Structure formats: C-alpha cells, structure tokens
Known about the structure:
Layout: H1 2-62, H2 65-94, H3 101-130, E1 144-147, E2 150-152, H4 161-208
Antiparallel strand pairs: 1-2
Amino acid sequence: MEDFEKKVSIKEPMETDEAACSSSSSSSSKIVHLLRSFLAIQQRRAQAYAKLKSGFTEYMVSGGELPYQQLCSEITQEFNDCSKQVLEMESLFMNPDYGRTDLAQLLRAVQEQEKQKLHLTATIQVLKKAGHPSERLVSHENCRYKTAMEHECVHVHEITEAVGTEEAEANAEYDNALKEAIRGVQNAVTAINEHLEEVRYEIAALEAE
C-alpha cells in the first residue's frame, strides 16, 4: 500500500510539471509568432518608405503633382494599417494570457519612433519641394506689361545690405531646418533598429527554451 502511495505521490507532480511545460511551450510559440508578425510589419514599412522616396524623386524631376499626391495617400493608408496591427499586438501582450508588458512597451517605443520618422520625412519633402529660398522661382503674374515681350517687374528692387542680410538669414534658416529634420530621421532609424534587435534577441531566447 505504501509503495502504491509513493508511486502516486511521485507521479502527480510529474504530470503537473509536464502540463506546465506544455503550457509554457505553447505560450512561447504564440509570442514568437506575434514577434515575427511584427518584424514582417516593419518590413512593410521599409518597403513603403522606399516607394515614397522613389516617388518623391520622380516628382522632383517631372513635377507631376497628381501622381505624387496619390502615392502619398497610398503610403498614408499603408502606415495607418501597419500601426493598427501593431496596436492590436500591444493589446495582446498586455493581456494576462501573454503577460508580457515589456514586449508591449517595446512595440510602443517602435511606434513612437516610426511616428517621428514619418513626420520628419514629410518635413524634409515639404522643404525640398519649396526649394532653397534664394533659388525659388519668381511669379510675374502681378507685373505690369508694356508690350507682349516687355514688362515692368515688381520684383526688381535695389540690392541693399538689409536685403542681402534678410536673404542670407532665410537661407540659413532653411538649411538648419533641413539638417535638423535629416538628423532627426537618422536618430529615429537608429533607435528603431536597436529596438528591432531586441525583438530578434527575444525570439532567439524563446526558441532556445
């Protein structure tokens, strides 16, 4: 009788351990699946940025406003869709079934950097579309025409020291704004890549269990 009880007392914890191990394995598998899905979304974002960059370069050459605006709408929709899916992943990681608040925060950090990157990318394109102040084209629609080939240009003015200083300040302000935006994008990209490396480490650790 004692032998039987000993066998039972030993067997029950083993069954519990096996069940816990199976549950842990299943949970790890779900987490890995979510993290890999997140990396796939980041790949979509990278492809969208490449498409946007290519489209903007083409716009600067051809000046085709409509195709560029259509592209911007498509890219905006793509980014919104990506963000929505990541938010859903964040919620899942916060759920007690997953209990990985740390991963939810990691995804949130990437989201914030992606938002900053997109905002600054748009700023760069707006600045480049406007062009350097001293190189912007002048419109003559308000000028007075004496003949079809001759007009009195309202833009002609005496070049003074004050005017020269004002133009130099405008150029410097433009250069600083562009440099700051470019630097901001570079910083965002660096931060995003660091977070993605953390995600890959987490996947490797879970798969090694």
